[in-house]
Amino acid sequence: MTYDVVVIGSGPGGYVAAIRCAQLGFTTAIVERYTVLGGTCLNVGCIPSKALLDSSEHFHNASHSFQTHGIDLNNLRVNMPQMIRRKNEVVMDNNKGVEFLMKKNKVDVYHGHGSFVSAKKIKIMASNGSSQEIEANRVVIATGSKPIVPPHFNYDKKRVITSTEALNIEAVPSSMVVIGGGVIGLELGSVYARLGTTVHVVEYLDRIIAGMDADCSRELMKSMKNLGVKFHLRHAVTTVTPTELGVKVVAESRDDASKSISWDVDYCLIAMGRKPYTDQLGLENVGIALDEKGRIAVDEHLQTSVPNIYAIGDVVKGAMLAHKAEEEGVFVAETMAGQQPHIHYNLIPGVVYTWPEVAAVGYTEEQLKELGIPYKPGKFPFRALGRARASMDMDGMVKVLAHKETDEILGVHIVGARAADMIAEGVALMEFRASAEDAARMSHAHPTYTEAFKEACLAATGNRALHV
Fold first, then answer.
1. Mean pLDDT in the chain?
2. Which of 69, 301, 344, 446 is catalytic?
3. 31: closest CA among 20, 44, 53, 15?
4. With helix as H, strand as E and coil as C, how does 208-231 read?
């Protein structure tokens, strides 16, 4: 069978690329090594983690704020097996949704490990050992990424775990060490902290979510400390030793190697980032090399060194984000169709789905200083917002960075309730190169969380914020 396009990998980048290719009239197939579609994001990443984040937040609110709202509960407890079942049902429903989209768009689905025999021939090895080959005029590599796990950390999937196993713990742990203060570690750490686990976060750098604006780091850390999370910054984990009933973790201070901390905990969650998944793709058969981080080199059209092969998502440079992969999937499909799509990479938002949420787009204050771009900041605290007070979600702030001379919005950074949804306003305005004054002149419904964005823009245009 010969297709116009074959996509290897069915995560958000892969299945969206396949849909758009089919919409554009290409005969399309998708190859997925697992028995279900959706990739890491849908099965062991974005979707299941958000399901647990929501469930744990409901429990935390019930135990900490319902009484203030006038809601009395007796014998409140966590039913962890049911929480996991609900999470699995959410994943299963999404699996079915992607399957439906493939059928609707007449995309042929092959299950098995795809690899290159040649630039236009793909071998598919099924889990039962059988194999078949299909041909493609063009191929899109969208195989995603997998967790980084140093060998000496003794990853056993039982007591020393990654995000994959952390989604299926069926009893609330009493204690956990999280190695890494990035998005994945903080999200899953917050899930268990809300449920009552004593959580220690060990971070090598001097702050958490180091790629985001420093104000966001400070606000989130303050909020998570209120949950009971304990942070150990500028520490490096040296040994991780699992036992049958727990795990011993030792870390030493980067400022004084003679000072170390050790914990005996139920679980150690390794959340040190992810690396491209390009294992046994047969790239050597087509002459595609990997860089020092295992990524596939592409040009401005996301085209590899082999003209008919493209690569998107986590296997290429850039943020490892599902929505970035989706944009690239559409971009590649439309490029192959002769259209002129574009992606503004600086305007792809990043989100941390803790509570409060953290969301950002554009430049951080540190980046603007480093680049020598003149700017003016405007900040507004959620605590001064009527809607936040009504909902008891008062942690956080909105920070807007505007060009000092032109007033163009250069960055938006939000910590607070519904930040993940609010950031879309910043993205839209920045895509059209709006000024802080433009945003400040827009009517925002009252009372809403987005009023904080308007107030931050007012603050950036001459300290005109009205409610502080």
1. 97
2. 446
3. 15
4. CCCCCCHHHHHHHHHHHHHCCCEE
Who's near 38: CB < 8 A, 6+ residues apart?
Answer: 10, 11, 12, 15, 47, 91, 94, 95, 98
Residue in the block written with tokens 């049958």: 244
Give dist(CA 447, CA 463) in Å, integer: 22
Sign of CA dihedral 36, 40, 45, 47: negative
Residue type, 333: A
Pairing mode, strands 397-403 and 409-416: antiparallel
Instruction: Report the 10 Å Cβ neighbour count for 114.
Output: 26
The pLDDT confidence band at residue 248, using thresholds 50, 70 and 90, is: very high
CB 295, CB 144: distance < 8 Å? no
The predicted structure's pLDDT at residue 293: 94
Query: Which tens digit of pLDDT belongs to each residue from 302-360?
Result: 999 999 999 999 999 999 999 999 999 999 999 999 999 999 999 999 999 999 999 99
Q: How far apart are CA 269 and CA 182, in angstroms?
A: 12
**Cβ neighbours, 10 Å, residue 174:** 13
Residue 337, SS3 per DSSP: coil
Phi, psi of 224 (to 5 degrees): -70, -30
Q: How far is CA 154 from the centre of its chain?
A: 25
Which residues in 277-327 belong to E strands, given as ranges?
A: 309-311
Instruction: Residue 277: name the closest of 247, 225, 312 by CA.
Output: 312
Positive or negative CA dihedral for 162, 322, 426, 454? negative
pLDDT confidence of residue 258:
86
156-207 pLDDT, tens digit per residue, is 999 999 999 999 999 999 999 999 999 999 999 999 999 999 999 999 999 9
Burial of residue 258 (CB within 10 Å: 0-12, 13-18, 19+) is exposed
Closest CA to 457 of 414, 396, 395, 393: 414
Q: What is the pLDDT of residue 257?
A: 82
Query: What separation in angstroms does the CA of 180 have from each of 67, 185, 186?
Result: 35, 6, 8
CA distances from 370 to 218, 373, 374, 375 (A): 20, 8, 10, 12
Domains of the chain: 2-146+275-345 (3.50.50.60), 151-272 (3.50.50.60), 356-460 (3.30.390.30)
Largest CA distance in the chain: 68
Q: Is 188 in contact with 163 (CB distance < 8 Å)?
A: yes
Q: What is the pLDDT of residue 241?
A: 98
Q: Which residues does residue 5 pair with via DSSP β-bridges, in sequence order? A: 28, 138
364: Cα separation from own chain's centroid: 18
108-111 vs 113-118, strand pairing mode = unpaired
* 60 has catalytic annotation: no
